[in-house]
Automatic annotation (TrEMBL):
Xref: SUPFAM superfamilies: Adenine nucleotide alpha hydrolases-like, MesJ substrate recognition domain-like
Location relative to the cell: Cytoplasm
Binding-site positions, ATP: 35-40
Taxonomic placement: Bacteria, Bacillati, Actinomycetota, Actinomycetes, Propionibacteriales
Entry similarity comment: Belongs to the tRNA(Ile)-lysidine synthase family.
GO MF annotation list: ATP binding; tRNA(Ile)-lysidine synthase activity
Domain tRNA(Ile)-lysidine/2-thiocytidine synthase N-terminal: 30-210
Organism: Microlunatus kandeliicorticis
Record protein name field: tRNA(Ile)-lysidine synthase
Domain of life: Bacteria
A GO-annotated cellular component: cytoplasm
């Protein structure tokens, strides 16, 4: 019996997954993050079809139950059954923890979800495939802009980042929109789950999708798809710039880092001072995070930067979780509240 021809949307999804397979180390193993929604069902359907043509590709899926809604366990079980019906047999359901309390409901759920997904992928030595679409990418760019957190935030989601692969964001094959994943489900007769949270404008991403994007498209007198394309291009350009700056900052950090008798590593000020600010602040922010400061804001990075570029004998700078001071040519950090004897070891002998 002849095999049924793929519909146009399904063909695009399969082409995206086939391109992802070429970006997977041997022996190729994939773990799909599946919610049972249109994007993840389209991802699973395409993965099954790519795997059918390759004897060496192993594909599994994990469904994460956040426990945030009544009946969430039943919804997760139905999502797992839907993925099995597509043709995957290695499907597990995992419960997620509560996530960090200070991250907000969306951030906490995202952190908890990725912790589960990354743990499962690492245990299987697999790449983690996610079904984010070009529409998700455009929303992420706008969310980054609202946070005001610089080009790395505007770079949004990389098609490849560590274990994480997002085939529908494009690259070697064209990307897919949300309408495409809906079309895949329609072509294949799949009945995706509709998460009620995805229609609740109290969540910032939903408000961006339902209110901000249409308003911007109207203001630009452009079709919504054209605005999405522009935002996706912005992410790609910002990512190229951010990647280069991060690479240059890595070299500067290696030049500046010092080993201290006690406490975290220090930083030498002499190479930092004349460095371009874009590199200097990157080095300082990473150093603060490594030393124990949770998500230092720009105001904290700038205060520590003043110890390098505008030092007038200040005693120290307080940032969340840390106290930072300058001792000669070194920046030293200890947990907030530590006494003078605990600040980065002894003073240098002059």
């Amino acid at each position: 019996m002849a095999r049924r021809a793929l519909g146009p949307a399904t063909l695009r999804a399969v082409q995206a997954l086939a391109a992802a397979a070429r970006d997977t180390a041997a022996p190729p193993r994939w773990l799909l993050g599946c919610s049972g929604g249109p994007d993840s069902l389209a991802l699973a359907a395409a993965a099954v079809r790519v795997a059918a043509g390759r004897d060496d590709l192993r594909v599994g899926a994990v469904v994460v139950d956040h426990g945030l809604q009544p009946g969430s366990a039943d919804a997760a079980a139905r999502a797992a059954d839907a993925v099995r019906a597509i043709g995957l047999t290695d499907v597990v359901v995992r419960a997620a923890g509560p996530g960090p309390a200070d991250a907000g409901p969306e951030g906490a759920a995202r952190t908890a979800r990725y912790a589960v997904l990354e743990e499962e992928a690492a245990a299987r030595e697999a790449d983690l495939l996610l079904g984010h679409t070009l529409d998700d990418q455009a929303e992420t760019v706008l969310l980054g802009l609202l946070r005001g957190s610089g080009p790395r935030s505007l770079a949004a989601m990389a098609p490849r980042a560590g274990r994480r692969l997002r085939p529908f964001l494009g690259g070697d094959a064209p990307g897919l929109r949300r309408a495409d994943t809906e079309a895949v489900c329609a072509e294949l007769g799949l009945d995706p789950w509709r998460d009620p949270h995805n229609a609740d404008p109290r969540f910032r991403r939903v408000a961006v999708r339902e209110r901000l994007l249409p308003a911007l498209a109207a203001l630009a007198d452009a079709p919504p798809d054209a605005l999405t394309d522009a935002l996706v291009r912005t992410a790609a350009l910002a990512r190229d710039d951010a990647d280069l700056l991060d690479e240059l900052a890595d070299g500067l950090a290696r030049e500046c880092r010092t080993t201290e008798p006690t406490g975290p590593a220090g930083l030498r000020c002499a190479p930092l001072g004349p460095a371009p600010r874009a590199l200097r602040t990157r080095v300082l922010r990473r150093w603060l995070v490594e030393a124990g400061a949770p998500e230092p804001a720009l105001v904290h990075v700038r205060a520590v930067e003043a110890l390098v570029t505008d030092w007038r004998g200040q005693r120290f700078v307080e940032v969340p979780g840390l106290r930072v001071r300058r001792a000669g040519d070194r920046l030293l950090a200890v947990p907030a509240g530590a006494g003078p004897s605990g600040v980065g070891g002894p003073e240098p002998v002059s």
